[in-house]
Each structure stands twice: as C-alpha cells, then as structure tokens.
Design a protein that fits this description.
The protein has two domains: 144 residues, 3-Layer(aba) Sandwich (Rossmann fold), CATH 3.40.50.1860; 111 residues, 3-Layer(aba) Sandwich (Rossmann fold), CATH 3.40.50.1860. The radius of gyration is 18 Å and the shape is globular. Helices cover 43% and strands 18% of the residues. The protein has a six-stranded parallel β-sheet with strand order 4-3-1-2-9-10, sandwiched between helices. Strands 6-5-7-8 form a four-stranded parallel β-sheet, with helices on both faces. The chain is α/β, with parallel strands linked by helices. The protein has eleven helices and ten strands.
Length: 268
C-alpha cells in the first residue's frame, strides 16, 4: 500500500484528498493542516520559504510517506523548489489550472480566483504568458473564501451574500460579463463550488487542479514498491490547531479515522 502525505494550511487540501481517494481507493493518506500559520495567502514569500522546507522535512521524517502532495497553491507557487531541495521523496505541487481554462474558454476571457498570495506571484504571471496569451485574464485575490470554506466543513452557516461579495469585483469589472471560465487557484475554493455557482450571475465553468494532481500522484506512486497494508489508522494532524469533536467528525468524512493535534512549529 502506497502512502502519501497531503499538506495544506487548513482543510483546503481535503478537496485534493477527495480526488485522490476517488482515483486510488486503497491509498493510505496522512493529512497535515498548518492551522498555526493559516492563512498562507497573507504571508510573504520569504515567510513561507523560511517555514515550509524545515516543517515538511520534519513531517516526512516522522510519517515516512512515499510522496508529499503539497495541496496548496500559495505554498506551491512560493516555496516548491525549496521544499523539494530538502526532501528525499517526490513532492507534487499544485499549479493553478490556467492552461485548461484557456483551452476551455469560448470567449477567451478567464479569471483566476485565488488568495492574494497566489495571484500576485510571478509564477502565475508566467503561466499566463505561457498558456493564456490569447486570453484576457482577470486576477482576483480573496482570503475571505478560505475562512468560509473552513466554516462550511465544520457545519457553520455560510452566508452566500458573503461569497457573492467576494466574486462581484471579478465579474463586474471591465471584462466581467465576458468571463466564462474561472480557475479556482486555491484548494479551499472547490469546497465552496455549489455556493459559487449559485452566487455567480452568469454561466461559468469552474476549473481546479484536484483531478490532475490525483493523476500525477498515481503516476509517481506507480514507481514505488508496494508495501504490506498498514495497520495504523489514517490520521489528520493539526499543527497548533483546534482539535475538537466537530473537526474529528469532519476529517472522518474524508477517510481519516484519527485526528491529533501537533505542537506549534518554530521556524528558524
């Protein structure tokens, strides 16, 4: 049985877990949520590079996975190279799905909806240059949707007016009415897909990277020598997070039988 460690700032990576389990039902997963440092979207690139390589190295030494799925667009666009440099297992990052969005769009007008820390990265500019030169591209940064996704998964009321307020600037701007495809460039956002669809005033294709990341993980793990089935429960680990029964039940819905709190991590 192959073992992947899925890492995110919070519960957003569960949208990737959903795709991994759909594609590979027998996969063994460890999930890590860096609740202490969330949200990543308002952290600088320097802060993420200072924290994440050392933190992931510690987690890999402890969990001994066959690969790491860095299920966070902000972390991937800021520190993927540095993380790969310190780990001895493959690291699969999340790339905003700009290429498929550009191919999908009929109006050649697309939007990238992510955290401020993602949409402002040069990495995203380069993806647009490489794959969407024939498109008008609207960039919209929001951190509020991250918090709303976290609330939704623990059963809190999600006000759709709040969601509408976050996407209105994107859809009411210069090219807003022509946008027919939106890249969900944060793994939290697919967890709000139903609410986003209801909040949008026009028909939109919402595209994320979850399925592509699952396919890439399957390719990577196909090269790993299969080990006997693990007896330990699949576990969600919360760094400096709130470990309570509500969150425990939430993680169980995604296949994690155990939830445990980890102490806060001190960056160098």
């Amino acid at each position: 049985m192959t073992h992947a460690l899925v890492f995110d700032s919070g519960v957003g990576g569960l949208s990737v877990v959903r795709e991994l389990r759909a594609l590979m039902p027998s996969i063994y997963l460890t999930y890590v949520a860096d609740d202490e440092f969330r949200p990543y979207g308002d952290k600088s690139e320097a802060q993420l590079k200072a924290r994440l390589p050392g933190l992931l190295k510690t987690l890999v030494l402890a969990a001994r996975p066959d690969c790491v799925v860095l299920a966070c667009n902000t972390a991937s666009t800021a520190a993927l190279r540095e993380i790969r440099a310190v780990l001895d297992v493959p690291v699969i990052g999340v790339v905003p799905a700009i290429k498929p969005a550009a191919l999908n769009s009929k109006t050649k007008t697309i939007a990238v909806l992510g955290t401020p820390g993602t949409v402002q990265r040069k990495y995203v500019d380069d993806l647009i240059k490489d794959h969407a030169q024939d498109c008008r591209v609207v960039l919209q940064g929001t951190g509020k949707l991250v918090a709303l996704a976290e609330d939704k998964l623990v059963g809190k009321f999600v006000d759709e007016a709040s969601i509408r307020a976050e996407i209105t600037p994107m859809l009411s701007g210069k090219y807003g009415e022509q946008i027919d495809t939106v890249v969900l460039a944060c793994t939290h956002f697919p967890l709000l897909l139903d609410e986003l669809k209801r909040a949008a005033p026009q028909g939109i294709s919402w595209i994320d990277s979850g399925a592509a990341i699952a396919r890439r993980t399957r390719v990577v793990l196909a090269e790993v020598k299969s080990e006997p089935a693990m007896d330990a429960p699949q576990t969600a680990l919360l760094i400096g997070g709130d470990h309570n029964e509500t969150r425990t039940q939430m993680f169980k819905r995604f296949g994690f039988d155990k939830t445990a709190a980890l102490p806060k991590h001190r960056s160098r």
